[in-house]
Recover the amino acids of this structure.
């Protein structure tokens, strides 16, 4: 079983400070030092648009300064991964959560109980093909990021937020989606796995947790021979065993081996288009973001020597 050693971490830290975005450096510090969490809300404020949603390139492959549901999801994901929760008293944090929830529930209409992750204004700015606007994105994006967002709201918002009740009402729809016999996209795995993690943190919806985990495992087993399937990332909140557990451990070893000689990880997605010169600068920005994403996952699985 491979691990990131203290020596590795020292190299990573030095390179990350040189090449990472401020938000990624802040994430790294908060990941390994509880006191570092206080800088995260201030860092996210730099990405907030006038309507309360998140934009301004928080998602590196989308240079749109305007808010979108997906970029707002990214902010919630960061807060959740760093173990913010409804008990937080930081004023900036509470302000961000109120603005985000108001943006999602009052400015972003749901269609068929799902938020469109894409904003029309994406197409006016440099972006990867992944973020080109689609009026009907659901055949590609499935329930993502709606299911994940609903779980994050339950975890991150104080119970007295009116938006928490709205999120709870939507959970029943997500449960009905699990019963549909359809092939899952990678996005579906991300959102359902995220929701499972949120429900476990809340220690609520025990029956839904069981249904979620069972269905995630069933769908993941269909990818046992798929070398591109990121088992540890897509099953990070699932209790695996047997062959599936072995694939998770193998995937963690693969992540560690894929760290580049300069010390950081690179994002291999690409933009799927040659239309924008910004794709090159995005690849550089991804050095920090991909690195903290992998470190967060490796820390969760005990693969970092601390």
């Amino acid at each position: 079983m491979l691990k990131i050693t203290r020596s590795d971490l020292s190299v990573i830290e030095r390179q990350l400070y040189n090449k990472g975005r401020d938000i990624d450096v802040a994430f790294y510090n908060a990941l390994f030092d509880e006191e570092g969490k206080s800088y995260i809300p201030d860092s996210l404020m730099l990405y907030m648009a006038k309507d309360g949603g998140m934009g301004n390139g928080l998602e590196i492959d989308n240079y749109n300064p305007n808010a979108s549901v997906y970029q707002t999801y990214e902010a919630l994901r960061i807060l959740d991964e760093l173990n913010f929760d409804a008990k937080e008293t930081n004023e900036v944090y509470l302000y961000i959560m109120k603005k985000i929830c108001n943006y999602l529930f009052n400015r972003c209409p749901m269609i068929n109980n799902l938020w469109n992750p894409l904003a029309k204004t994406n197409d006016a700015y440099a972006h990867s093909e992944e973020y080109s606007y689609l009026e009907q994105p659901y055949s590609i994006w499935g329930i993502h990021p709606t299911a994940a967002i609903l779980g994050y709201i339950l975890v991150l918002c104080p119970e007295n937020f009116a938006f928490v009740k709205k999120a709870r009402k939507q959970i029943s729809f997500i449960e009905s989606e699990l019963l549909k016999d359809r092939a899952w996209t990678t996005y579906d795995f991300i959102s359902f796995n995220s929701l499972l993690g949120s429900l476990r943190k809340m220690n609520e919806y025990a029956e839904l947790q069981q249904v979620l985990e069972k269905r995630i495992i069933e769908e993941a087993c269909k990818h046992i021979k798929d070398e591109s399937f990121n088992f540890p990332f897509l099953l990070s909140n699932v209790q695996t065993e047997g062959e599936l557990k072995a694939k998770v451990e193998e995937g963690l070893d693969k992540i560690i081996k894929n760290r580049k000689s300069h010390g950081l990880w690179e994002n291999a997605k690409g933009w799927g288009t040659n239309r924008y010169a910004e794709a090159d600068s995005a690849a550089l920005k991804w050095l920090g973001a991909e690195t903290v994403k992998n470190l967060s996952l490796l820390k969760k699985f005990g693969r970092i020597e601390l």
About this structure: DSSP finds 13 helices and no strands in the chain. The first helix runs from residue 6 to 19. The CA atoms of residues 93 and 254 lie 35 Å apart. The mean pLDDT is 96.
